[in-house]
Amino acid sequence: MTEATITVKPKKSGTTLHKLKTREQLTGYLFILPALIVILVFGLFPILYSFYMSLFNWRVTKGAFIGDKNYLLIFGSWTNLLITLAGVALIIGAFWIWSNAFKTLNKGQMIAKIIAAAVMIVGGVIFVTGWGQMINAGNPTFLKSLIVTLYYAIGTVPAEVILGMILAFLLYQDIVGKDIFRMIYFLPYVTPSVTSAVVFQIIFSLRETSIANMIVGWFGISPQKWRFEPKPLLNLLGLNISGFLAGPSLALFSIMIFGIWSFVGYNTVIFLAGLGNIPKETYEAAEIDGATKSQMFRNITMPLLSPTTFYLVLIGFIGTFKAFNHIYVLRTPSAGDSVITTSLLIFDNFYKANQYGIATAQAIVLFLVILGLTLAQNKLMGERVFYG
Amino acid sequence: MDSVAVKQKPVVSAPRAKRSRFYYVGRILTYAILILGAIVFIFPFFWMISSSLMTLGETITRALMPKVPQWVNYVDAWNQAKFSKYFLNSVLITLGTLVGLLITSILAGYAFGRIDFKGKNILFGLFLATMMIPESVTLIPNYLLIRGNIFPIPGGTWLNKYWSLTVPFIANAFSIFLLRQFFAQIPKELWDAARMDGADHLRFLIQVVLPISKAPIMTVLLFGFTGSWNAFQWPLLVTTNDTWRPIMVGLWSFVNEAGPQTHLLMAGAVISLIPILIIYFLTQKQFTQGIATTGLKG
Fold first, then answer.
1. Residues within 8 A of A (CB atoms), B 34-93 only
2. In total, how many domains does chain B have?
């Protein structure tokens, strides 16, 4: 576009096209320079430096170079990690086979599903083996924190998305006081998480008169210890399950309720905007063709809303893996490691235990896990997203 | 970009003739769910405010409302927990951060949106990538950085200094991205015309672009404000005394000191929330529209 303007301005003699282009480039660099410095120094450089630190026996001050020792403390051995990752790869492969393979074949779907199931089982077994070895030889506290984080993500993100969607659908009608509803729903999201977590500290306190105990009391449930209860929720409900399937502790469950409470409104607002972007004509055309409301919902609303849903799931997952403030405020010593997500564990290793080298190695692993999850979601869900 | 604004027109309104009993049941159910949702969302706020006005005894017996509002709780919390200090600190930190944030993100957003220079896309991608990085990764090196352990910094150490709480936050990829999206949409004819009048990029930016970009700039300010006011993890790390301790860390230390004094604690919580509430109620539309826009384009 610069060339076009330059040709109209011949009076500035001496300024050649080349000079102007160089000046343009220079202006560009000058404009981004302030932001670039800050982001380079405080955003990008620390990643490299974290990796550098993770290779040392670093406790407050730099110690000896120890190479991959800090990572081996996590996994036990690289073989364990490779076995676990192979399991993950097979499980992802199974998903791919399930949805994509043998499409051209007659009865292809059937074959694909059988093979996918087989691959899935093998992948699962390999994964569990590798994971078990890592727990035996590596750092069980860190690995457990990953599971806690996963519980937290699975327990909050889908609930937030579904509740947000329902509220958005309901609000997206002729509703009296729509703006007020939206304002109230969004309020928890703008509230500082430390402030609201301090309030929830007291709501979920172990006193018999606490709000949480009052509410479960209406349903005839005896007072619970909430944030102070390390026992899995399912065990408290009478199911005798142990291990991974036992699920989150009641303490973590309390934190999940807080998470859902504070993020549903955000999802509602984004879904409302997504609904607003669906052209009205689409519905009108469908109505003329005699489509019922449920058909319109399935064939118009859902597909056209899928990019929004995808975005919210992705942001939600990344957010739960990064979550810190409210978990830090809501955790209790008696809940033990049942509420310690990876972010918190890293912070404790750094801030309380002064294990800088170990903490940075764990942070790098967390970063890679987030990266992997993002890519996997892009691959698995991204294909189903309809961009219009 | 404004077209993305949350404009809700009823999409599927049933033709009047078809309105059956079923329709009215549906309407009642809709309102019931919406109101129930509103109660769940608002209750903690109601309870926070009501507890903040109770006596200590009332908080223990779990009254829902105070018999006589104890406004003195606010005075006690304000004095006892040094909230006046923390509050002022947070105001100054937020102001400083916002000024820096505006300058860096307007300039960078403009450059990425409207100027051609080599390596632009790579740099922009690099900026965006920082949005995905967990704070856990950057926290530890940044801590060493502001203590001057990695390389010398002006003043020796920024521990307990104003700079450690502001400088790392005066630029972020999100704000740049938001402004870039808006600036890139400004018609090229405007620039051509300005160019004819002999304007350079900076003058065009200040005289033409900024006056028509109030909405996205407002969004950047709002997000910057909440981000700065709500900051916790980093300030917890870099403030070891009260000199520059911001409000959220102050509230947290009060939690640990106040112990069972729920009424004072809730008064403190309300104090920490007031600026956010004022800004939110004043700019509510802008807030939700801004966030919706970023969500869809993200």
1. 34, 37-38, 40-42, 44-45, 47-48, 51, 60-62
2. 2
> What distance separates the 2 farthest-apart alpha carbons in chain A?
89
B136 and B188, same domain (yes or no): yes
- Same domain, yes or no, for B190 and B283? yes
pLDDT digit string, tens, across residues A20-69: 788 889 999 999 999 999 999 999 999 999 999 999 999 988 999 999 99
Q: Are residues A100 and A145 located together in one domain of the fold?
A: no
Whether A347 maps to a domain, the answer reads yes
Residue A23 lies in a domain: yes
Q: What value, to the nearest 5°, has the Cα angle with vertex A207 and ends A205 and A210?
A: 65
The radius of gyration of chain A's CA atoms, rounded to the nearest angstrom, is: 26
Compute how many other C-beta atoms are within 10 angstroms of the C-beta atom of residue B72: 12
Cα distance between residue B229 and residue A192, in whole Å: 8
- A117, A137, A157 — which closes off a domain? A137
The whole-number average pLDDT for the span A1-29 is 66
Among B44, B73, B102, the domain-final residue is B73
Spatial distance between the Cα atoms of A317 and A146, rounded to a whole number of angstroms: 13
In a domain, A327, yes or no: yes
Are residues A168 and A282 part of one domain? yes
HSE-CB of B159 using CA atoms within 13 angstroms: 11
| 3-state SS assignment for residue A146 | helix
Beta carbons of A199 and B48 less than 8 Å apart: yes
Expressed in percent and rounded to 5, the helix, strand and coil fractions of chain B are: 75, 0, 25
What's phi and psi for A36, nearest 5 deg? Answer: -60, -45
Q: How far is A258 from chain B (nearest CA, A)?
A: 11
Question: Do B51 and B124 fall into the same domain?
Answer: no
| ipTM field | 0.86
Minimum mean pLDDT range among A171-185, A209-223, B9-23, B242-256: B9-23
Cβ burial, residue B227 (10 Å; 0-12/13-18/19+): middle
User: What is the rounded distance in angstroms from the CA atom of residue B127 to the CA atom of residue A170?
Assistant: 38
State how far the Cα of B234 lies from the Cα of B242, in Å rounded to an integer. Answer: 15
Q: Phi-psi region for residue B93, left (φ > 0), alpha (ψ -120 to 50) or beta? A: alpha
Q: Is residue A59 part of a domain?
A: no
Same domain for B52 and B174: no
Nearest chain A alpha carbon to B137: A363
Q: Structural domain of residue A332, as residue ranges?
A: 139-384
CA pair distance A346, A340, nearest whole angstrom: 10
Confidence bin at A101 (pLDDT 50/70/90):
low
Number of domains in chain A: 3
Mean pLDDT of chain A: 88
CB B5 within 8 A of CB B218: no
The number of C-alpha atoms within 13 Å of A7 and in the hemisphere containing its C-beta is 3
Contact A199 B266 (CB under 8 A): yes
Give me the CATH number covering residue B234: 1.10.3720.10
Same domain, residue pair A216 and A106:
no
